[in-house]
Amino acid sequence: MTTYLDDLYSKLGSTYHAALLSGNLIFTTSDTQTITETEYNIEYEVCYAPALAKKPQGIPPVVEAKTHEKIERVDPFLPHDPTLFVEDASEHHKILLNKFCVVPHHFLIVTKDFRPQTQPLLPEDLLTAWNALQALKNSHPDAIAFYNCGARSGASQPHKHLQVLPITRPTPLTNLVREVIQRRPGRRETRPGEQFTVPFPCVHHAILLQDPENTPGKDAEDILVETYIKLMDNMLMSIREYAEQEHLSEEERNLVMGGGRASGLAYNWILTSEFMMLVPRRQESTNPTEDGIALSINSLGFAGMVLAKTPEELEHVKKTGVIELIAETGFMFGKDGEGRSAEEEAQKKKEQEVLEKQMGGALSSL
Ligand code: AMP
C-alpha cells in the first residue's frame, strides 16, 4: 500500500531550501503589522509586501486557440515546475511549493489532473487537506488549510488547488474562534459538531469539528464531508435569502446566485484541526476608494491576514479596519438597509444588539 505525507515537514524544508537557492522559488519578505480593531478588540495582521505590487490578480481566462476547437489552458501546475514538487499527497493530489510565497513553506495541494477551481471540494480533497494538517500537527499545530473557490474568491489560478500555510502561531481567526466557542456568562460552550459565528458583519458559517478519535462510527472523512455539506447547505440558504431581498436589482440578484450555476458561486473555505468555515463572496476586491484603492481578498483575509502591496493600501486597511474591509467582499448584514421597512430595520437592529452583547463578553478578554 502506498503511504502519503510521511515526514512532510522535512520534505517541505529540503525542497524549499533547494528551490530558493536555485532561484525557482521567490520568497518575498514582508513587514507584518498588527492592528487592534478597537470596535471588536481583535488583533489582525496586515502583511505589507510592496514587491508583490506587480503580481497579476484574478483567475486568467481560458485561452482558446483560434484554429481547431481545442482549448489551451495556461496552467502553471500542469506540467508543474519539478523543483517545486514536494511529494504526492494522495492518489489524486500532489504537493507543490508556492512559487511566490510570503510565508516560507507555503504549499499547494494540487489535483494531478486538471479540475476547475470552481468545483466544490470532493471528499478526497477534504481528506487530503486534513491529512496534510495532521502530518504537520506536531511541528505546526496551528497550520491552516484554505480553498479560494470561484471567480470572486481571490483565486488566481484556474486549476484546482487547496493551500496550506504551515505557520507556528495561531491565525487571528483561530484565536477569535477559540474565544467565541468558550463558555461565558449567559452563553454555553460550543460543542464539537455544532455551528458558531464570529463577529464578521457578513454571511459566514462555521462548525467546530468532531474529533475522529473520539467519535464512534465516524472516521475523519465522514466528519469532514458531513461538515462541508452542512456548511454548503447553510451557505446556499443564506445567499438565497439575501437574494430575495426586495430592493435588490435583477442584476444584483443574479450575481448573488452565481448566475444560477453552482460553478458561478464563489466562497472561501478554511480548515484547521479545530474548525471549518465558509464565507460566500460577492466580489473579489474591497469597494474602491475615491482614489481607486481596492484590496484583493482571499481566504487568508478571513483568517485575519490581509496583504497590502502599496503604502496606500496599507493606509486604507489601517483607516477602515480589517473586519469592515473583508466584510465588503462578502454579503454584509445591515449595509443593505435601503429596502427595509422601519419594523424590519428595528428587528435587524435588535438582532445586531443581541449578537454584539453575546460577542462582547468573549471579545473583551482577547
Ligand atoms: P491563488 O492565487 O489563491 O489561486 O493561489 C495560487 C498560488 O499559486 C499563488 O499564490 C501563486 O503564487 C502560486 N503560483 C503561481 N505560479 C506558480 C507555479 N508555477 N508553481 C507554483 N505555484 C505557483
Outline of this structure?
Residues 334-366 are annotated as: Disordered. This protein has 366 residues and is of the alpha+beta class. The chain is built from nine helices and 16 strands.
- Please tell me how large the radius of gyration is: 21 Å
Instruction: Name the structural class.
Output: alpha+beta
SS strand fraction: 15-25%
- What would you call the shape? globular
Distinct compounds present:
adenosine monophosphate
Report how far the terminal alpha carbons are from each other: 46 Å
Order of neighbouring strands in the sheet with most strands: 6-7-9-11-10-14-15-13-12
Number of helices: 9
What is the CATH top level name?
Alpha Beta
How does CATH name the architecture?
A: 2-Layer Sandwich
SSE pattern, N- to C-terminal = HEEEEEEEEEHEEHEEHHEEHEHHH
CATH superfamily: ATP adenylyltransferase
Helix fraction, binned, reads: 25-40%
Uncertain stretches of 5 or more adjacent residues: 61-67, 336-340, 354-366
Q: Would you report the number of β strands?
A: 16
Mean pLDDT: 87
- Counted up, domains total 1
Region (Disordered): 334-366
Pfam family, one: ATP_transf
Domain Ap4A phosphorylase 1/2 N-terminal: 7-168
InterPro entries: Ap4A_phos1/2 (IPR009163), Ap4A_phos1/2-like (IPR043171), Ap4A_phos1/2_N (IPR045759), ATP_adenylylTrfase_C (IPR019200), HIT-like_sf (IPR036265)
Topology:
Blueprint: H1 8-22, E1 26-27, E2 31-37, E3 42-48, E4 63-64, E5 71-72, E6 85-88, E7 93-97, E8 100-101, E9 107-111, H2 123-135, E10 144-149, E11 161-165, H3 172-180, E12 195-196, E13 205-208, H4 220-243, H5 250-256, E14 267-271, E15 275-280, H6 299-302, E16 305-308, H7 311-320, H8 322-328, H9 342-364
Parallel strand pairs: 1-8, 3-16
Antiparallel strand pairs: 2-3, 4-5, 6-7, 7-9, 9-11, 10-11, 10-14, 12-13, 13-15, 14-15
Bound molecules: adenosine monophosphate.
Domain ATP adenylyltransferase C-terminal: 199-331
InterPro entries: Ap4A_phos1/2, Ap4A_phos1/2-like, Ap4A_phos1/2_N, ATP_adenylylTrfase_C, HIT-like_sf
GO molecular function: ATP binding; ATP:ADP adenylyltransferase activity
